[in-house]
Amino acid sequence: MQRFAVIGNPIEHSKSPQIHSAFAAQEGIEIHYQRVLAEPDDFISTVNQLQEQGLIGLNITLPFKVLAHANCLQLNEYAQAAGAVNTLSFNQGDWQGANTDGIGLLRDLEKNIGLSLSDQRVLIIGAGGATRGIVLPLIEAGIAELCIANRSLSRAEELVSLFADRSQISACALADIKHESYDLVINATSASLSNQVPAIPAAVISSTTFCYDLAYANDDTAFMLWAKSHKAQGCSDGLGMLLEQAAESYFIWRGFRPETAALFPLLRP
Length: 269
Description:
Blueprint: E1 2-8, H1 16-27, E2 31-37, H2 43-52, E3 55-60, H3 65-70, E4 74-75, H4 77-82, E5 87-91, E6 94-98, H5 101-112, E7 121-125, H6 129-132, H7 135-140, E8 145-150, H8 153-161, E9 169-173, E10 184-187, E11 210-213, H9 222-229, E12 234-236, H10 239-254, H11 264-267
Parallel strand pairs: 1-2, 1-3, 4-6, 7-8, 7-10, 8-9, 10-11, 11-12
Antiparallel strand pairs: 3-5, 5-6
Helix pairs in contact: 1-10, 5-10
């Protein structure tokens, strides 16, 4: 039986074992998928030990995505652009890193929600690791404009500088967001986890704006409630992104692309 795992700190909340076991059932196989708690100083030794035990693939979650990136011999283009890895494979002892977060977001927006991203104006709130993973896939989807707004302008500018050859991307401070509407507004901050909403002007929302929160919960997040109160066209949390990025990880490991639709009611009763 092939072995897989997800590693992070904390890790007990992870839905990955449930998700990947369901993917394996679709393929008609059984796998062993476990949660692994690691301390920051023990991350590399823990991964090496798992590999020695015959692990096939490893999902990486906070706070180890950047550290995993730094220790990979090979990286896919999305991991290179993000500076972070969420999916590890092993090739004769070498770490091979991928980042499936952006692919997961695009599949959720386009396949599950039915949005077309071509020529859309996009605003991302937050310039942390979550944003780094989704910028390149959004650009490749053909958006017309991407503004990254962050409390600290310098951090947003630093992220934008990584894509200096892309004319459609810009940075601004939260306080300087233009009072004009966007087609898609993405909350990439952790504010919803503490039931808060980033300090952004309501003018970024119009009746044609879709709002997306990378965080997910059983009920509407604070950002989703805020978007609804300002008459956004629609809104969603990030559960679909979670499922789709996991499906891409499974495809990398097994060459089998799972269907995700049936898992929504399983994960959110």
